[in-house]
Design a protein that fits this description.
10 helices; globular
């Protein structure tokens, strides 16, 4: 699904705004994140060494805001008719968090870094906030996880699949 959405961004925005800006915007978005940004970069022929810092930075920028604000945002939404949506999001995040409470740092790093559906910096930040993880521990784990995910996706889309796709 992320590949399809990333391809849509590449096709529809890649000729309207600079390719690097498309990569950055995609990397900011939940679900797509750095992984989607690197897919877009590959599709738009952005050099890997240009795309990596753009996508990593785009993916990391939302992290402190999520860590600081998500509990307040959820508390506010729970007072509205949208409380069921917040309950579902929280339940999904907490289900994904199983196993993180013991090895918080490494568990969070691997959760963010292994590019599987439903993982990434957005969900990892939400889990860290909901579990009450200290930001001093969560931010480095999430940041290193984003770098790990960027490395894995780079190998796949610029290395293994790069020659096939271009």
């Amino acid at each position: 699904m992320a590949n399809t959405i990333a391809a849509w961004f590449a096709e529809n925005l890649g000729h309207v705004i600079p390719a690097e800006l498309v990569c950055f915007i995609v990397s900011l978005l939940p679900i797509l994140e750095c992984r989607g940004g690197l897919i877009v970069a590959s599709l738009l022929n952005v050099k890997l060494m240009t795309a990596l810092p753009i996508c990593v930075l785009g993916n990391i920028i939302p992290v402190p805001f999520i860590l600081l604000l998500i509990n307040r945002i959820f508390a506010a939404f729970k007072k509205t008719k949208h409380h069921k949506l917040v309950d579902r999001i929280e339940a999904h995040a907490m289900k994904k968090s199983e196993g993180l409470s013991r090895g918080e740092f490494w568990g969070l790093l691997l959760f963010v870094g292994i590019p599987l559906p439903g993982t990434g910096a957005w969900t990892g930040s939400m889990i860290a906030a909901l579990l009450g993880m200290k930001r001093k521990k969560a931010v480095p784990a999430i940041g290193l996880g984003v770098i790990l995910a960027a490395f894995i996706i780079s190998v796949i889309f610029y290395g293994l699949l790069g020659s096939v796709m271009h």
